[in-house]
Write a structure and sequence with these properties.
Elements lengths: L2 E5 L6 E7 L9 H12 L7 H4 L5 E4 L1 E2 L2 E2 L4 E6 L7 H4 L11 H8 L10 H8 L5 H7 L4 H16 L4 E9 L2 E2 L9 H9 L8 H16 L6 E8 L15 H10 L4 E6 L2 H4 L4 H4 L3 E3 L10 E3 L7 E2 L2 E2 L4 E7 L10 E3 L6 E3 L10 H24 L4 H13 L3
Antiparallel strand pairs: 1-2, 2-6, 3-6, 4-5, 7-8, 7-9, 9-15, 10-15, 11-12, 13-14, 16-17
Length: 399
């Protein structure tokens, strides 16, 4: 089973992860891995940090001559901005004395927690009144290394013709019309990669950008919803016998662990709660040799979003993640100074105005990790050759 830890602060030297349980014999394309990191950095509404960083993964262990060894894989991403923060964020040296005015603010004006962020609750939990000790790790900068790990999982899944894409279905109160659909996942990816807000419709894209511009003019932020679609999944990933084996619950946990995400939906989700059962459940049909990954059973609708009873049913996996607006505002909200207990304005960090397009990329990575783990739980051994053999045997078994 795949396990991993991430480490690193937003303005520290680097982000690091060690991944264990990855099978031996998978060829890794570093350019594809770094492409995923580049996708995370894009999007209208991103802030100045993305102009500083050019994220590239450094492989430190577990891969040789581009093939996984079956031993733990260590990845790192250097923080280019650390050069500007060394006086404040050095792991050993105390905060330097020769700080300029901006550096002094960043180093010492850290006692006015931001509503909606981890500052206050994390500070109380760990007894830190210097909220720099909380916000550096709670920052969404950590998702860069998660995208790198997810890129490894994505390359594993692609060996079995499993493809992942995402697009933005709303920003603020602007929604993609329900009737606008791109069913071909390659076309969807082609369109979204050429959109500043990862939108499949040009008119809606312009409306998204206008909404972000308006929020920025007000020194405010916007959230929204991204949809992730996965094709090529076989029947039977996940399980029904225990709550922790249900694929939808594992996916929900992975998506809700992404900073700013406050909502998760699968398939028709909340819409299905307003309908009759006869309008919700996907009727079952059979056609011999229609698709071996589906065991020849198929549906004409996909209200379930590709999961029934905690397991994949062979249809496209469709999930949505709702992100709240970024909690750092250039028009600070009211808060309390934890030293004086007096009313104050929340501290202001460099921030984005809207992260929904990038959040979709992070969601893709989270989904890839869950699916790779579930795939290995079903078909896995410790090397690619046996996994492929087990998968082929499963597809070829009659049912």
């Amino acid at each position: 089973m795949l396990t991993y830890l991430t480490a690193g602060e937003s303005h520290g030297p680097q982000l690091t992860s060690i991944i264990d349980g990855f099978p031996a014999g998978l060829q890794i394309d570093i350019e594809k891995l770094n492409f995923q990191l580049q996708r995370r950095q894009k999007g209208y509404g991103r802030g100045g940090r993305m102009k500083i960083e050019t994220d590239q993964a450094i492989i430190l262990s577990g891969i040789r001559n581009s093939f996984t060894l079956g031993s733990p894989i260590t990845l790192a991403i250097k923080n280019a901005d650390y050069a500007n923060w060394t006086k404040i964020m050095h792991p050993i040296n105390p905060i330097a004395d020769d700080l300029n005015l901006k550096e002094r603010r960043l180093a010492y004006e850290t006692t006015t927690p931001r509503p909606g962020h981890a500052d206050l609750t994390g500070g109380i939990k760990l007894n830190h009144k210097d909220f720099r000790n909380i916000l550096e790790r709670a920052s969404a900068r950590e998702t860069a290394i998660r995208v790198a790990i997810g890129a490894l999982a994505r390359q594993f899944l692609e060996q079995f013709d499993i493809q992942i894409a995402s697009h933005v279905v709303s920003i603020g109160d602007v929604f993609l019309p329900d009737e606008i659909i791109i069913e071909d996942i390659n076309e969807l990816r082609s369109v979204t990669e050429n959109s500043e807000v990862r939108c499949i419709d040009k008119e809606t894209e312009e409306n998204y950008i206008s909404a972000i511009k308006n929020a920025k003019a007000k020194r405010d932020s916007l959230g929204g919803v991204a949809e992730v679609i996965v094709t090529g999944l076989p029947v039977g990933l996940g399980g029904f016998s225990q709550p922790e084996k249900r694929l939808d619950s594992i996916l929900a946990a992975a998506i809700m662990a992404i900073p700013s995400v406050k909502g998760f939906e699968m398939g028709d989700g909340f819409k299905s709660a307003r309908k009759l059962g006869s309008d919700v459940h996907d009727e079952i049909f059979y056609e011999k040799d229609s698709n071996k990954a589906k065991k020849d059973f198929y549906r004409k609708t996909n209200s379930a979003g590709g999961v029934e009873g905690g397991m994949t049913n062979g249809e496209h996996l469709v999930i949505r993640a709702a992100a709240k607006p970024i909690s750092t505002l250039n028009k600070p909200l009211k808060t309390v100074n934890v030293d004086t207990k007096e009313p104050a304005e929340a501290m202001v960090e460099r921030t984005d105005n809207c992260v929904v397009p990038a959040m979709g990329v992070v969601c893709e990575a989270a989904v890839a990790l869950v699916l790779a783990n579930s795939f290995m739980a079903k078909f896995g051994t410790d090397n690619m050759s046996e996994i492929k053999q087990n998968y082929d045997n499963y597809l070829n078994n009659s049912f």
